[in-house]
Write a structure and sequence with these properties.
The protein is α/β, with parallel strands linked by helices and 202 residues long. The chain is 40% helix and 16% strand. The chain is globular. This is Class I SAM-dependent methyltransferase.
């Protein structure tokens, strides 16, 4: 049976108080994560954040947190969940698309911050390889690619989790043109020439 990102899924993993604290971390943890990503992008761009693209955005939880920090920044989210788009699409700027659609889909100019959080380790290899080069093209600044590997202790939703070694992702991110900054943050191809030798963890 294929995984369904429906109302029951989001109620369980994002609104059940016990599970949220254990696996997702709640609003405070999300706010810290968003603040870290925004600060890192602005450090590299040397200006305030203007645009964010969130691929695999779910209900668009990043949008309210980003709006508190940078209310003038433009947020655009994409997800495959019919439920999430129907419920939050108009309010949070969400649209429907699967990850593999980004092999061709270019919904905007390259953005300051590209987000793909807690997505890649659920994708099969073919879909991941199809969409990842598109993410690199759409990243004009920094990417937050929160991804977990077989060496990590994973809490929360493990249904469909692909237990791949870390090198699987590192090799693909490197081929796509991303350079590691740490804490799931990656410098996009457009800014690689601006990096000093010890600013990345390559």
């Amino acid at each position: 049976m294929s995984k369904q990102y429906d109302r029951d899924y989001f109620e369980r993993w994002y609104r059940d108080p016990a599970l949220r604290r254990e696996a997702i971390g709640g609003a405070a943890r999300l706010a810290r994560k968003v603040a870290m990503a925004v600060a890192t992008a602005e450090y590299w761009l040397e200006r305030p954040l203007r645009s964010v693209l969130d691929i695999g955005c779910g209900e668009g939880a990043w949008q309210p947190a980003l709006n508190k920090l940078r209310p003038k920044a433009r947020y655009l989210g994409f997800d495959s969940s019919e439920y999430a788009i129907a419920r939050y699409g108009a309010r949070r700027g969400l649209h429907r698309a699967a990850f593999a659609d980004f092999a061709m889909l270019r919904p905007c100019a390259p953005v300051d911050l590209l987000v793909c959080s807690d997505v890649l380790h659920y994708l099969d290899t073919r879909e991941l390889d199809a969409g990842l080069p598109g993410l690199a093209e759409l990243c004009g600044g920094v990417a937050f690619l929160e991804t977990f590997s077989s060496g990590d202790e994973v809490a929360g939703d493990t249904h469909g989790f692909r237990r791949r070694p870390a090198r699987f992702y590192r090799e693909r991110f490197d081929r796509a043109g991303f350079a590691p900054l740490g804490s799931h943050l990656w410098l996009g191809p457009a800014l690689l020439d601006a990096a000093a030798t010890l600013e990345t963890t390559r």
